[in-house]
From TrEMBL:
Keywords: Coiled coil
Annotated GO MF terms: ATP hydrolysis activity
Phylogenetic lineage: Archaea, Methanobacteriati, Methanobacteriota, Stenosarchaea group, Halobacteria
The keyword Coiled coil belongs to this UniProt entry's keyword annotation: yes
The species this protein was found in: Haloarcula pellucida
Protein origin, superkingdom: Archaea
NCBIfam families: ASRP
Gene Ontology biological process: double-strand break repair
Annotated protein name in UniProt: Chromosome segregation protein SMC
Length: 659
């Protein structure tokens, strides 16, 4: 390998940022080491001189799988040393001949760089204009639009829940005065009952004192009355406990019914296991690997044949340079070569158009395989999502089983407790009946008054306990209501944050689309001013939107429409079509579209290398202007050019003359 660096390195820091590539057995490269400084590096040379292989080696170092193992080698590697870090990708061939690549590149995910930074001849963004592809879908390919829409739905649901809670809080605020009024009334009633009980107890004391000496059975009677009052109080407590236990049992049974229904649904949803999903995922991964290998082999075949086809014409041009006197003969050769060439595979003479047609078919076949890969990737994502859903359902079923076990245990415990309470209720009822009979047997005419007073006192104490229980319940309800009302400000603040998130999510896609259009239109205008194409006034993209309603939501669909504006000899402007663009104009438009994607997806901050080759459709002076323009946006711009095109570039650009 020979490297001729004509750039003057004026800054030590710039030299320190040079990238070193060591390549072995990649593409057509046997072994080479290349230093790439910051700025523009030109790879001048004829076709079939490993320049494209070196560009693919740079892509491999970035993390791309587009590079291929040399056909006569079983292993190879690309090693990049950049800013003190080393990245290595290893290539090897399996027993069945498949070439595989391992190791980490500089980029975690090179797919966006493959679209908008690695602008080789077959680059999808670069070819999009010529093929009239959907520019919107291509520029938005790195954006997880469905993920953003799912997040919008999640935020909308969260906002709806907050709105429901705030509405409930407003209803509670309206009900709060009534609850406070009830609490106030209960307190007044309790105070009144206590005052009445106090008066009654004073009356009991007075009456009891009057008959104390004359009635020896009073102590026994009062003891029975006290015991009767205690039993009635205990019976009331037991009844309350029974009510609570019965409510708890009913709630547990309801919960059990709901969980059993949910478990039944889950059982039907996850019948069998996910082994068939795993098997399908593995089959699809194998198919993807096979397709990647085929595409890699196809790319090698296409690149080789394109270079050989270009060499067929280059031989005539070389003859002109070496012996200008033979111009007449050379012209005849050019005319002949335009029709026929010697096939480098079988040695026979074939129509050049037949080879071109075969190459077009190979390109189309490669695009079909790329589409197959995208289809497989989509199906893989669906299967992975299915597997995750199955796992979540299994986990939920396990949770339900645990909850059902807990409920059964708690039901058994509460049922036993309920039976104990009912037995206690029967026991207390029997005791009260016995005590009432004892009191009646002890009653004498003199005790009638005090007995009635005791009964009234017992009833008052029971009423007070009941009212205090109601007061406690209402006080708890008021406290809970006040706590929820206190949360209202936090909920409103959270709702405001969700509104901001929602606005950001809803405008994120539009912002990316708008920025992409603005970037393309801005840079296209500047480049056309620099390149000065005849009667080509403007090429610009218009963003068009249309709303599409579904059952759940209204989705705004966007498309990009490319416009071409030319002018007549008299200066009148008219709109032309993409089909009428020259090959040079289409190439430039495709490159600027790729640059727009490069900028809108912020690749200039994460992808240090931008690569270009196969610019022969553009004349040398315009290539030089384009290279200078693109150099403003990438730390390292590496361009493979034919020698005659490279001569138009400034001499202070770094040049690698042999690989």
């Amino acid at each position: 390998m020979g490297t001729h660096n004509t750039a003057t390195m004026k800054e030590g820091a710039k030299s320190d940022r040079s990238a070193r590539f060591e390549v072995e057995h990649v593409g057509g490269i046997e072994e080479t080491t290349v230093e790439i400084p910051v700025g523009v590096t030109v790879l001048p040379g004829k076709n079939a001189t490993n320049r494209t292989s070196f560009l693919q080696s740079i892509m491999a170092a970035m993390g791309s799988d587009w590079a291929t193992l040399k056909c006569d080698a079983d292993e190879g590697f690309v090693r990049l040393t950049h800013q003190g870090e080393t990245y290595e990708r290893q290539f090897s061939r399996t027993s069945d001949g498949e070439a595989i690549c391992r190791g980490d590149g500089l980029l975690d995910d090179p797919s966006v760089a493959e679209l908008f930074a690695f602008l080789l001849e077959t680059n999808e963004a670069r070819r999009a204009v010529a093929r009239s592809d959907d520019l919107h879908d291509l520029i938005m390919q790195p954006v997880d639009i469905e993920g953003i829409r799912a997040e919008i739905r999640r935020v909308v649901d969260a906002k709806r829940e907050i709105n429901d809670e705030l509405a409930t809080i407003e209803s509670l605020k309206r009900d709060l005065p009534d609850l406070e009024q009830q609490r106030s009334e209960l307190r007044e009633r309790i105070d009144s009952k206590r005052l009445e009980l106090s008066d009654l107890e004073a009356e009991i004391d007075r009456t009891s004192t009057e008959i104390e000496e004359s009635h020896k059975e009073q102590d026994r009677l009062e003891a029975k009355l006290t015991e009767l009052r205690d039993r009635r109080s205990a019976l009331n407590d037991v009844r309350n406990d029974i009510d609570k236990q019965e409510q708890s049992v009913a709630a547990l049974k309801q919960e059990r019914t709901e969980l059993e229904a949910e478990r039944g649904d889950l059982m039907s949803a996850v019948e069998g296991d996910d082994s068939d999903v795993d098997a399908r995922i593995e089959r699809l991964r194998a198919e993807k690997r096979d397709l990647n290998a085929k595409i890699s082999d196809l790319q090698s075949v296409i690149t080789f044949n394109e270079e050989m086809l270009d060499d067929a014409d280059s031989a005539v041009l070389n003859a002109i340079e070496s012996d200008p006197e033979t111009m007449g003969d050379i012209t005849s050769q050019l005319i002949e070569r335009r029709e026929e060439v010697t096939c480098w595979t079988c040695g026979s003479s074939v129509e050049k158009s037949d080879i071109d047609q075969t190459l077009d078919q190979l390109q189309r076949y490669r695009q079909e395989k790329l589409a197959d890969i995208r289809s497989i990737e989509s199906e893989l994502e669906d299967l992975k999502e299915r597997k995750r859903a199955l796992e979540q359902q299994r986990q939920r079923r396990s949770q339900i089983d645990s909850q059902l076990d807990r409920i059964e245990a708690e039901l058994a415990e509460r049922t036993d407790r309920l039976q104990q309470l009912r037995d206690r209720r029967s026991e207390l009822t029997s005791d009260i009946e016995t005590l009432e009979a004892d009191v009646e047997s002890l009653r004498a005419e003199d005790f009638d008054e005090v007995l009635e007073l005791h009964k009234e006192a017992n009833q008052l104490e029971f009423d007070i306990e009941t009212l205090e229980s109601e007061l406690e319940s209402i006080s708890e309800e008021i406290a809970d209501t006040e706590d929820r009302i206190a949360d209202a400000d936090d909920l409103r603040e959270r709702r405001s944050e969700l509104n901001d998130d929602l606005e950001d999510l809803r405008t994120r896609i539009e912002q990316i689309e708008t920025e992409a259009v603005e970037q393309f239109n801005h840079h296209m205008e500047q480049v056309l001013d620099i390149l000065e194409y005849d009667n080509l006034n403007r090429i610009w993209i218009e963003r068009l939107t249309a709303s599409e309603s579904t059952d759940d939501e209204t989705v705004e669909e966007t498309r990009f429409e490319l416009h071409v504006v030319r002018s007549t000899e008299t200066g009148a402007a008219y709109e032309d079509t993409i089909a009428h663009l020259s090959e040079s104009e289409r190439e430039v438009t495709g490159l600027i579209f790729a640059l727009a994607g490069y900028l809108v997806h912020d690749l200039h901050g994460t992808v240090p290398f931008m690569l270009m080759d196969s610019l022969e459709a553009i004349d040398s002076e315009r290539i030089a202007a384009l290279v200078e323009y693109f150099a403003e946006y990438a730390d390292y711009l590496v361009v493979a050019l034919l020698p005659e095109d490279a001569q138009a570039l400034p001499s202070d650009y770094n040049r690698v003359t042999e690989i």
